[in-house]
Design goal:
Number of helices: 15
Order of helices and strands: HHHEEEEEHHEHEHHHHHEHHHEH
CATH topology: Rossmann fold
Distance between the termini: 72 Å
Helix content: 40-55%
Number of domains: 1
Shape: globular
Strand content: 5-15%
Number of strands: 9
CATH architecture: 3-Layer(aba) Sandwich
CATH superfamily: SGNH hydrolase
CATH class: Alpha Beta
Length: about 375
């Protein structure tokens, strides 16, 4: 039995390794057919998503994880886990006006080429409008990061005396996902996995259980069960109680307050953007309606938590809090590639809105300098 298990595990490992890294699966084909990448040929889109599959993480204190370095055709990540940003305005890194961009995979701009991420598009807009400026934008975005993690990222840079002039937070999605996963607001995304792994070396029983549930054979069996009995390959989640939305909103507002105290101490200007999602887009294309249907279980938490944040008196009176969840309302073409990630057109529209919001700060920083 052990030999059979090992043979099956090795065989399935080879199969899944090819499947996961090939970039040619139903989801990629669905994205290509959606029209979100009409400006790119199908092979380039496949390459982009193939590289996403190949990305890996490594342990990082306080943050749980960060990107491993990657030198892909479309995704470049340096030794510090930072994605490459097009910086046409950068003339001198020592005296440059520094803009830090924080967020999850949507700020990282998963599914986009290096030069077409939100930070890269923002950098190009700044260069076009203010060609004389010396500006360096850093993309700190990472898959699954929440506002809590982003605050820690910022603090670690401040402690190293890497002080920004402008900070951009782009949040909303992972705050809901992490709360939905853990049924508790403010916890890191995938915290339940870290809980399972904690002190596992001290328990053979837990080690064996984790080995089994992490095996390729277990993945194959559970996938086949779902497909046979539900005709759906992935686990379908359930809605969480509406009361959780209040906790999500209050936790998010609490982290905004913390970053504002850092803003006053270190002299930078922080902007808090509430990001769009599939539930906030007014006109959904056929493809986007499919994404909406597939992941309706997040809808109540998004709608309620966003409303609670908007209605908070602190947020209403804070000019640095900017709700851009309606940024795609006039778009008739497909923007989303799932319920929250956007193609390169979506990144460009978001960057334009962010630029319009920080333009005055850019002018003021220039006059001060």
């Amino acid at each position: 039995m052990l030999v059979i298990f090992l043979l099956l595990e090795i065989g399935l490992g080879i199969f899944y390794s090819y499947r996961d890294e090939s970039g040619v699966d139903k989801n990629t084909e669905r994205i290509i057919a959606s029209g979100a990448y009409d400006a790119l040929d199908a092979e380039t889109v496949k390459e982009i998503f193939r590289e996403l599959r190949q990305q890996d993480m490594e342990w990082e204190p306080y943050l749980h994880y960060r990107f491993k370095p990657m030198n892909g055709k479309h995704n470049t990540i340096d030794l510090n886990g930072i994605r490459k940003t097009a910086n046409p305005s950068l003339k001198d890194s020592v005296t440059a006006l520094k803009i830090f961009c924080f967020g999850g995979s949507t700020m990282y701009s998963a599914g986009s080429r290096d030069d077409y991420t939100i930070p890269s598009e923002l950098s190009k807009l700044i260069n076009t409008t203010f060609p004389e400026k010396n500006v360096a934008i850093t993309n700190f975005g990472c898959h699954g990061y929440t506002r809590a993690t982003e605050n820690i990222q910022l603090q670690r840079e401040l402690i190293k005396n890497n002080i920004p002039d402008i900070v951009i937070f782009y949040d909303g999605v992972n705050e809901i996902i992490s709360a939905h996963q853990n049924n508790e607001a403010g916890t890191p995304t995938n915290a339940y996995n870290r809980k399972k792994e904690f002190k596992i070396a001290h328990s053979y029983k837990r080690r064996i259980k984790l080995m089994i549930t992490s095996s390729h054979l277990y993945r194959f069996i559970t996938t086949m069960q779902r497909k046979l009995f539900t005709d759906i390959e992935y686990i379908q989640l359930k809605e969480r109680p509406s009361a959780l939305a209040t906790d999500i909103a209050q936790t998010y507002i609490g982290y905004v307050k913390i970053s504002k105290s850092l803003e006053n101490e270190y002299g930078f200007k922080a902007y808090n953007f509430m990001q769009p999602n599939i539930y906030s887009k007014k006109n959904l294309t056929t493809a986007e309606q499919g994404y909406f249907k597939d992941q309706q279980y997040y809808k109540n938490l998004y709608n309620l938590s966003y409303a609670n944040v908007r209605n908070d008196s602190l947020m209403q009176n804070d000019s640095t809090f900017i709700d851009i969840s309606d940024v795609f309302d006039n778009a008739k073409q497909t923007i989303f590639t799932d319920f929250c990630h956007t193609g390169e057109l979506g990144n460009k529209l978001v960057a334009k809105t962010i630029f319009e919001s920080i333009e005055t700060a850019l002018i003021k920083k220039d006059s001060i300098n």
